Amino acid sequence: MSLDVDIRHRQGAFTLQACFRSEGRLTALFGQSGSGKTTLVNTIGGLVRPSEGRIVVNGRVLVDTRVGTFVPKHRRRVGYVFQEGRLFPHLNVRQNLLFGRWFTPRAERRASFDGIVGLLGIGHLLTRQPSTLSGGEKQRVAIGRALLTDPQLLLMDEPLASLDEARKAEIYPYIERLRDEGDVPIVLVSHSVSEIARLATSIVVLSDGRVKASGPAADILTHASLFPHAERLEVGALIDTHVLRHEDVYDLTTLQAKAGILTVPRLDLPVGAPLRVRLRARDIMLSLKAPEGLSALNVLPGTIFGIDAPDGAGVDVAVDCAGDRLVARLTRKSVEGLGLAPGLPVHAVIKSIAFDPEVLVQAPRNGG
Amino acid sequence: MSDWLSPEEWTAVRLSLKVALTAMAASVVPGIAVALLLERGRFWGRQALDVLVHLPLVLPPVVVGYALLLGFGRRGPIGAFLADHLGIVLSFRWTGAALACAVMGFPLLVRAVRLSIEAVDRKLEDAAGTLGAHPVWVFLVVTLPLILPGILAGMVLSFAKAMGEFGATITFVSNIPGETQTIPSAIYTLTQVPGGEGGALRLTLVSVAISVGALWVSEWMARRVRRRLLAR
């Protein structure tokens, strides 16, 4: 899968200028409201015609203003899951699901109706009218409806924004399954760091209509300065681990990462299961010596390889622990007091209790 | 029952129904098209079309009837063309009465359909487009079902207007029993002759019954459509 976007679009006083390339299974477009992310997906989906530029999906040119190419939305084969679901109120769930299939060329109908209905857990809703569904159910039907058109790309514009935390938690696993088991690459619009940290394999950060950064999720998420202040607390390193063993006596589970061993609250996963762990920068302390007499269970030795420019009282310090890159958010005072500098060996200390369920997520099957 | 009304009165009732149903049926498709043009179209002369469609609503009906006579009469430019090339004669025929009724009811039909088009969530049409539906299909399977209540309401208004139309009809096609004498014309004639009060009253009651019936049918259909759109 590849997505190449290089467009300029003027809308009143606002200019969107976006140039990036993504090959991830799930590319997150991150930005605050007004950053242009919805306009950007609308140009990919064909709802907005960009003033100039080029959009190519898997080698297929959808837009190229220089040669006058503009594939209309009904011929793009790009599925679109909208923020508000947009189910057809005059059709029941089954008819909504089959709506797009009817317009898909017979030879290209590969998605199995029963398979998708099963994957999304909506089999019991088929005869209901959309007005009787909950917000989470509506979004699952909207995802199914888009998938049943056998799209070459699936766009999701903040599909969970209107849902509460419980409903979000209900849908995340389905999106993870689509990412890992489906063969449709996904572009997800989001303004939540915890959401993209959980779901994304690649991230494009948008701000005021410009691309601030793009790249693999694990790289982008270590740079707090790319994210708005309110979201910086959520920023941190993503490291891939697998379950090593369970310590049932203490209700703990041990994870093996390249950096070493992490001890976390007991997980209901088999030994060997892959797990992606987000180590939030605010949950990590640095120590010059191997700490003794400390209650924290997770201590990872490493070497400082970078110190970001200070941001108020805080500074982000990047630490390489045997190939896993962690980021610790410290005060400027501590950095100066300890004399931290690139190349200095340190010990990263993480409290086990920092591993709430939100930071322990299913690892994308093909890696980030 | 059949001797409750005189044969002449029955003829007027049957003719009125025929004229009104024809007028309604003939204006539905053009009415939807014009409503779409006015609501969605961006073209030069949109304002002028809007005024033209609404003229019958504000002009005296006699003026509309006279304009039809000028345009569609035997010697009128359109009327002469239709008569010479297609053999269609409208003046002093029941078809002319249907045309007069259709023209008078047209603004009511267009307004009702327009309001329902305005209420359609265009985001649903966008969604249908991303699902692969060509714009024509989007209109047929998304927009049209969603504006159905407005179309039904407009049809009933058009029918009711046609049942009551008098001024334009009598000016354009006169008052010929059995050919162009609809219920209102018949009532008018009956009130002009001695001893006609009984017949006028009977036709008035028939007129009220038909109008109430039409309203009831439209309410019933609109409720069914709404129930399908909302919870079941």
The averaged pLDDT of chain A comes out at: 87
CATH architectural type of chain B: Orthogonal Bundle
Shape of chain B: globular
Query: Briefly, what CATH class of chain B?
Result: Mainly Alpha
Question: Class by helix and strand content of chain B?
Answer: mainly alpha
Query: What proportion of the residues of chain A is helical, as a percent range?
Result: 10-25%
Number of E-state strands of chain B: 0
Number of domain units of chain A: 2
What does this structure look like?
The complex is a heterodimer of chains A (368) and B (232). With 368 residues, chain A is an alpha+beta fold. Helices cover 21% and strands 36% of the residues of chain A. In chain A, the strands form four sheets. Chain A has a six-stranded mixed beta sheet with strand order 7-8-9-3-10-11, with helices on both faces. A five-stranded antiparallel beta sheet of chain A has the order 2-1-4-5-6, with helices on one face. In chain A, strand 13 (252-257) and strand 14 (260-265) form a beta hairpin. In chain A, helix 2 (93-99) packs parallel to helix 4 (135-147) and helix 4 packs parallel to helix 5 (165-181). The mean pLDDT of chain A is 87. By secondary structure, chain B is mostly helical. Chain B has a single domain (7-229), classed as MetI-like fold (Orthogonal Bundle), CATH 1.10.3720.10. Chain B has ten helices and no strands. In chain B, helix 1 (7-40) runs parallel beside helix 5 and helix 5 packs across helix 7 (135-164). The termini of chain B are far apart. Chains A and B meet through strand 7 of A and helix 6 and helix 7 of B.
